[in-house]
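Propose amino acids for all 206 sites.
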């Protein structure tokens, strides 16, 4: 069991270290505040846990078995990514206005940050399919399948909260540099562009 857990946590580390939409959104939100970044992490990991539970009950197989359902979810995910990208580019434009003496706009609520992280994860069909293929590999032989899968999903989510929390902390440590005129705006532009490209790629995938 300890060996299985170590292997599982090692795999979780590799997964979290792979750049993706969630990583981009977490860093983008952390540019605003640590609270915003951390709540985005919590929203994202709630989605991870939900997909793990769905996989534990075998419901993810319904998604993979239906091409129409998968395509609908893929298009929805693409729209969500494009929406986040456009939002980031608008924030970059408002930041430019603030640099020029115009108001930047009211900060987003913590609920908005949490909802953003949750929505981004739940709208990604790849996250659902990955949970279905990833978690069963680490269920110990002879262990009850459902409780083990749910437990692994919870451990996966909690571990990633700690991992991505380091990103939030690191961005916060660099706040004095990132808050300089033009730097934050450029980062918003980059994150917005990346999210847009990921959304377009998801929409075009067969």
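Proposal:
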């Amino acid at each position: 069991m300890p060996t299985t857990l170590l292997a599982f946590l090692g795999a979780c580390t590799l997964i979290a270290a792979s750049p993706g939409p969630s990583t981009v959104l977490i860093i983008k939100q952390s540019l605003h505040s640590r609270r915003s970044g951390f709540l985005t992490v919590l929203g994202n990991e709630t989605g991870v846990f939900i997909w793990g539970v769905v996989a534990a009950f075998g419901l993810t197989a319904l998604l993979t078995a239906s091409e129409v359902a998968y395509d609908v979810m893929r298009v929805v995910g693409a729209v969500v990514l494009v929406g986040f990208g456009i939002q980031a580019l608008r924030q970059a434009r408002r930041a430019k206005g603030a640099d020029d003496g115009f108001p930047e706009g009211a900060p987003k609520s913590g609920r908005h940050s949490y909802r953003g992280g949750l929505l981004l994860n739940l709208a990604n069909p790849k996250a659902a399919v990955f949970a279905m293929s990833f978690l069963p590999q680490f269920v110990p032989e002879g262990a009850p399948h459902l409780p083990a899968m749910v437990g692994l999903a919870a451990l996966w989510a909690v571990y990633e909260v700690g991992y991505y929390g380091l990103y939030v902390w690191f961005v916060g440590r660099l706040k004095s540099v990132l808050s300089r005129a033009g730097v934050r705006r450029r980062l918003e532009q980059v994150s917005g562009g990346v999210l847009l490209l990921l959304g377009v790629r998801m929409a075009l995938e067969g």
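The chain is about 80% helix and 0% strand. Residues 100-106 have pLDDT under 50 and may be disordered.
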